[in-house]
Specification:
Blueprint (H helix, E strand, L loop, with lengths): L1 H11 L5 H8 L3 H13 L3 E5 L2 E6 L16 E7 L2 H10 L6 E8 L17 E7 L9 H19 L3 E4 L3 E4 L2 E13 L2 E11 L15 H5 L5 H18 L5 H8 L6 E5 L4 E9 L5 E5 L4 E4 L3 E3 L1
The protein binds biotin (BTN).
Biotin binds next to α4, β5, β8 and β9.
Length: 305
């Protein structure tokens, strides 16, 4: 109902009477008024006058009704522990492919290697539940595709020199604006689900505890539309998942990376390595040339460069 009201008010961009809304929507005028009040409470400026309703402005909202074509697989939650936890529960209960779980704030946002992902208001924090029907060996390519799509969108939309740091961080001018975390479950070597959690610093101000981070707002010196960024990303990622050959992903990732041919320190849950990042293989494993000349393969870890 709310998505329809918003659509009508936006498409006409003029005063629409309560009677017209109630006829088009097939509900009473009282019901229309109740939904208008809820929209007003959610931050929409809707002026109610003697001739009807006029939408003056909308918040940069990620409410489910702002993504009507994605309902019922789009779940907006104002504040939760972590979208990863909710998405994992939903995936285990059998939710469909490309379910989106998004939060305005996370109280226990998680990063890779058990780090905390501070998730204050203004950022984008979401997890996608994917069921790609592929063997486990190919699963990492899906997360690499997510970082390729996001880096391309950020470059196009905001004209910024966004680059990927192995494995899936996105940096601009050496500072992090996005991180990804993936979790997977499998059965008999086939993926049951891969959940990709993405955090993007959009209009939030990274805290003093995150000196290596920046936000799109501070790069562009203005607030940006999270809805526009999220919509473009979801549409493009979904489309590329359906059409892109899994063999094309790593070559594209290499085009945007800042990690290859650099001296790097890699920290994993068990070890720390230093060397030159000479290549990544077709599944995203980093090939590190150590000082003694041997090649160390690293499947996952954190990269400092
Ligand atoms: C990292 O760079 O270490 C990965 C950060 C991933 C953060 C996102 S925000 C949405 C999702 N929910 C979480 O708790 N973490 C991921």
């Amino acid at each position: 109902m709310k998505s329809q009201i918003i659509k009508i008010l936006r498409s006409d961009n003029k005063i629409v009477s309560g009677e017209e809304l109630s006829t088009v929507l097939g509900v009473s005028r009282v019901s229309v008024w109740k939904h208008i009040q809820l929209l007003q409470e959610s931050g929409y400026t809707i002026v109610a006058g003697p001739k009807g309703y006029k939408l003056e402005s909308s918040p940069d909202a990620l409410f489910t009704w702002e993504f009507p074509e994605r309902e019922p697989n789009f779940h907006y939650l104002p504040e939760i522990s972590s979208t990863m936890d909710i998405a994992r529960n939903m995936a285990r209960k059998g939710c469909p492919h490309f379910t989106v779980v998004i939060a305005e704030r996370q109280k226990k946002g998680r990063g890779r290697l058990n780090r905390v992902w501070l998730s204050s208001e203004g950022g984008l924090y979401f997890t996608l539940v994917l069921r790609p029907e592929i063997p486990v060996a190919l699963a990492s390519r899906i997360t690499f595709l997510a970082s390729v799509v996001l880096v391309q969108i950020l470059r196009k939309l905001y004209d910024i020199d966004a680059r990927v740091k192995w494995p899936n961080d996105i940096l601009v001018e050496g500072k992090k604006i996005s991180g990804m975390l993936s979790e997977m479950e499998a059965q008999a070597d086939m993926v049951t689900f891969i959940n990709i959690g993405i955090g993007i610093n959009v209009n939030n101000d990274p805290s003093a505890e995150e000196p290596g981070a920046t936000s799109l707002k501070s790069l562009k010196a203005k607030e940006l539309s999270r809805k526009e960024l999220l919509s473009l990303f979801l549409d493009e990622f979904e489309n590329r998942l359906n059409t892109e050959s899994l063999d094309n992903i790593i070559p594209q990732w290499k085009h945007y990376t800042m990690t290859l041919n650099q001296v790097v320190k890699i920290v994993t849950t068990r070890d720390t390595y230093e060397g030159i990042a000479v290549d990544i293989d077709e599944n995203g494993t980093l090939l590190l040339k150590l000082q003694n000349g041997t090649i160390q393969k690293v499947l996952c870890g954190d990269c400092f460069q």
